[in-house]
Q: What sequence folds into this?
């Protein structure tokens, strides 16, 4: 008998992966956590039945949420990461020798424990000496910060359940306050394709635009996320994602990526017409 993991993307469409075995299933104080093994995508993590990452395509998401701001901002020293319990964002950040401090705020300790045990591909750098993990609500944590970080990366789950508060105007306003005067905030911005996802994306974009003077959206193509078309938000106090891109500086780091390049960086900000229309409607 075959065992399949299926996630409904709409009432009329779903995505399925054939599963070889279930490696872990448990309930934390916040959500159900499952890890599966599959032939096509390797190990993958779900929270409350929603796909979070697979070993096969996680590099796309994590490279695009980290390297885009690092290719723009010339001197990132202090970084705040909210969410990201799987460790993928941390892994990419630790590749930069000039980053001095990485504060990670994850509400669910159990997610980190499970990822350390079953997803070493992403969780491999959580013990880097520059990383300090705070197990608390990211919304409450960022309220206490002011003029402190060069970069904030919001690697949240979808805008319901434990991650709901990380899509509000209050939260983005607090992120603005927590950044210094050259700071950049990057957030996962949902998908524009299916109607319910597009509404959530528009709501997030409206709240970001109201909080930051510079706000742009860029895209990546991630096979296991709804529709495969995913967006990220780039919000900043000073730097512009294309005008301030420094290709020579970033390429001099010598980082080898499987998805991100500085050429792709430029193209990622040129969005399909229907996405531009969705964004323009709320700006």
A:
């Amino acid at each position: 008998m075959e065992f399949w993991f299926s996630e409904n993307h709409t009432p009329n469409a779903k995505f399925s992966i054939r599963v070889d075995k279930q490696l872990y299933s448990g309930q934390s104080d916040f959500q159900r956590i499952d890890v599966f093994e599959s032939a096509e995508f390797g190990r993958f993590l779900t929270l409350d039945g929603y796909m979070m990452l697979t070993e096969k395509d996680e590099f796309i998401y994590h490279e695009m949420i980290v390297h885009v701001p690092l290719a723009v901002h010339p001197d990132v020293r202090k970084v705040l990461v909210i969410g990201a319990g799987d460790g993928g964002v941390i892994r990419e950040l630790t590749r930069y020798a000039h980053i001095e401090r990485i504060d990670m705020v994850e509400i669910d300790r159990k997610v980190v424990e499970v990822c350390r045990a079953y997803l070493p591909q992403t969780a491999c750098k959580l013990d880097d000496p520059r990383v300090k993990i705070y197990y608390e609500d990211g919304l409450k944590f960022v309220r206490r910060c002011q003029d402190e970080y060069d970069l904030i990366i919001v690697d949240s789950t979808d805008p319901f359940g434990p991650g709901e508060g990380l899509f509000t105007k209050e939260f983005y306003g607090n992120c603005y306050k927590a950044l210094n005067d050259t700071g950049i905030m990057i957030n996962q911005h949902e998908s524009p394709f299916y109607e319910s996802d597009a509404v959530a994306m528009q709501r997030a974009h409206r709240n970001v635009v109201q909080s930051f003077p510079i706000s742009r959206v860029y895209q990546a193509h991630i096979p296991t996320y709804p529709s495969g078309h995913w967006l990220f938000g780039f919000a900043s106090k000073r730097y512009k994602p294309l005008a301030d891109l420094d290709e020579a500086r970033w390429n001099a780091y010598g980082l080898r990526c499987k998805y991100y390049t500085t050429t792709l960086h430029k193209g990622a900000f040129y969005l399909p017409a229907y996405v531009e229309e969705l964004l323009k409607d709320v700006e």
Notes: The first helix runs from residue 58 to 72.
